[in-house]
Amino acid sequence: MATRKAPSRRGSMHDVPKDLMQQIQQLEQQFTVPTEKLLEVVDRFVGELKKGLSKEGGSIPMNPTWVIGYPTGDEKGTYLALDLGGTNLRVCEVELGEESGQYDIYQSKYRLPEEIKSGTGEQLFDYTAECVKQFLIANHEDEDIRDMKELHLGFTFSYPCTQNAIDHGVLQRWTKGFDISGVEGKDVVPMFEEALERKGVPIKITALVNDTTGTLIASAYTDPTTKIGCIFGTGCNAAYVEDMGSIPKLEHLALDPNLQIAINCEWGAFDNECVVLPRTTYDKHIDKTSPRPGQQIFEKMVAGLYLGEIFRLVLIDLYHNPDVKIFEGQNIEALEEPYSLDASFLAEIESDPWENLMDTHALFEKTLNITTTEPERKLIRRLAELIGTRAARLSACGVAAICKKKKIDSCHVGADGSVFDKYPHFQARGAQALREIFGWDASVRQDPIQIVKSEDGSGVGAALIAALTLKRINEGIHAGVNVKRKNSLIPPPENK
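Structure for Phosphotransferase, as requested:
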């Protein structure tokens, strides 16, 4: 087994009172995921990936995206890309370059108002369409947007969708804390196109893309060793390319079994049956009180939306524990506000460089109006480490499962998302978990499977998929499968 360890900042604990030290030890027992548990999770993960591709299906949807194959690196043209994420909305214009694997991108970011996340579909898409309109006006000052019918849009919609065509997507369910009425069970493409029309924007959607699929394609565009795309952010997910012959639920289409199609795993739903994941009482509380109890069980343990909430619940539990002395005599009203802390709060704690954790002291005073002692801060620091490390190690299980299922011995995994980008040591902790899962010892100088920073999947990836889509249309490959849409890029059945 590898002797290298993922970074952890374990300061001296000699001054931590016995009651707090006992709690630290109990938290370590609850949140530590040993190698044996990693292996158990991966084994079940592999089975669930296969089940999702089967005719019976499973908790993990394993949605075919109808993105066919990988980019060549020679794609060219100017495309519009829209990314509707969990926190922000981003509009991009991408110019795929003259040189292979090169591009330029112009973009604007808009904050999604909180009230929209629990409003109506019309409100959501009208706001989104207005942002697209303002972007075009700002970036094409000398042009009339009514004349931009030739611009092709790749729409990154990062929620579980059933796709029978590249420009079609029926929302299965909202995730990332969204609870918008009138959208689930409907095709989101015409809903958004109607909003664009209301705003006087004549653009049509060429491809509906999940951000993980976009990450996969964008990373493969600049790095052909990329075989998997992952998002570790507000939510979590992965995509990879599967052979049609390994997708039993699509057998009825009688397509070429060697055809390669990108699969959007939607692995946040892994272990919704609660068989193998090491859930704590805090994880169970988050699920029980969420808008969708019993769904996205894996996501609720590893995604950025929930890490701060797990942390908050533990601190409140300790505060109300009569055997523990923490935040004594202080008003913790701010701490008691649900979802008032997110993953960035934990990231700031883990980034504190001082032995006495004075940055954490200032953070608690500023954010929560709580004054902390040094021993309390050491418990706080260890708790943040435990939650962040568990998320990274469990996330690595999904990557390992895809590699084992596809028998991938060596590859790059393109990863994007705020947790991967900004959470200290997340990448290193995931790498350590992969070493344990695959048994790479110290003689392995370079990890064969590496999770690396991706290219811009939701921007460049969406533009590339739009380019790949248009290429296939121009080649005349646009037979539909029970979908009356314009760009149904499903190859016709083989001649028998």
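Residues 268 and 298 are 5 Å apart (CA to CA).
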